[in-house]
Amino acid sequence: MTAQIIDGKAFALGLRARVGELAAAFRGSAGRPAGLAVVLVGDDPASNVYVRSKGKATIAANMESFEHRLPAETSQDDLLALVERLNADDRVDGILVQLPLPAHIDAQTIITRISPDKDVDGFHPVNAGRLMTGLPGFVPCTPLGCLMLLEDQLGDLSGLDAVVIGRSNIVGKPMAALLTAKSATVTIAHSRTRDLSSVVRRADIIVAAVGRADFVKGEWIKPGATVIDVGINRTDEGLVGDVDFDGAASVAGAITPVPGGVGPMTIACLLRNTLVAAHRNAGVALEEGAI
Ligand SMILES: Nc1nc2c(c(=O)[nH]1)N[C@@H](CN(C=O)c1ccc(C(=O)N[C@@H](CCC(=O)O)C(=O)O)cc1)CN2
């Protein structure tokens, strides 16, 4: 193996500690803690674990956690009514509805009802528009975490060739927007991309977010490239990413592992976004570049 392993777990712990210190200071100046409401509908086992981790991480970061666990048969109208109550609750700075939702609920309808100023997931169309136009807003946590790891690894990204594999609203599209804003030359590849291996071979940065185990092969990777693996695929061999790790690690310059790479950054960035939301909502200044 030649690649350096990018330790997302360690980076996330550092970020969480910084957010925790700033959240304690916020509590002092605002006279209340920053608050995050997390809503889980149903009993998906992985979602259940993520929601529990988010609650624990919120409390450990000196913030208040409001957890709402609703039965799988909750109606869309009842969920919308809860979102409206959370929008109006001054103790709540950030609202997150855990995805996926049960099939009878339209996720986009729910996301669009969250106040954009409490949308710490950054999924609301207003925040997507702010990201595209360079206005301050909330950036989805997973791509924000990927960007932090990339900048920590490579420094200035300008002029680098980046390929984002996957075009979801949650990862692929915001990731491409973030890399574009950093002046990388960005290609979004997807299931209809012709000759994907050649497209990937040009890239200095590869972000794989396809949701298919071991999809990206080592032979596709340019020697020395930086590989960010967003995939979390549960297989008989355990948890694996979208990148064939062993193949890629023998050619890449640096690579994120699964687990322990991008995943932990998602929750750390959620806490970061909640802290930013709390400062904005309470009118308390947060020093530029503090986190
Ligand atoms: N409303 C949202 N729903 C979902 C999001 C999201 O950002 N907002 N992202 C994912 C799930 N997710 C957080 O919600 C998440 C996924 C993975 C991890 C993580 O730390 N993964 C570990 C492995 C943990 C495991 O064994 O499963 C790792 O990669 O090291 C944290 C959060 C979908 N839904």
Give the SSE map.
Elements: E1 4-5, H1 8-30, E2 35-41, H2 45-60, E3 64-70, H3 76-88, E4 94-97, H4 107-113, H5 125-133, H6 141-154, E5 161-165, H7 172-181, E6 185-189, H8 196-201, E7 205-208, E8 226-229, E9 233-235, E10 238-240, H9 245-249, E11 254-255, H10 263-282
Parallel strand pairs: 1-11, 2-3, 2-4, 5-6, 5-7, 7-8, 8-11
Antiparallel strand pairs: 9-10
The structure holds ligand LMY7XDAE.
Give keywords:
291 residues; alpha/beta; Rossmann fold; 11 strands; globular; binds ligand LMY7XDAE
How would you sum up this structure, described in words?
The protein has ten helices and eleven strands. By secondary structure, the chain is α/β, with parallel strands linked by helices. A six-stranded parallel beta sheet has the order 1-11-8-7-5-6. It has a three-stranded parallel beta sheet with strand order 3-2-4, with helices on both faces. Strands 9-10 form a two-stranded antiparallel ribbon. Helix 7 (172-181) links the parallel strand 5 (161-165) and strand 6 (185-189). Helix content is 42%, strand content 16%. Residues 46, 50, 96-99, 121, 141-142, 232, 239, 258-260, 263-264, 266-267 line the site of the ligand Nc1nc2c(c(=O)[nH]1)N[C@@H](CN(C=O)c1ccc(C(=O)N[C@@H](CCC(=O)O)C(=O)O)cc1)CN2.
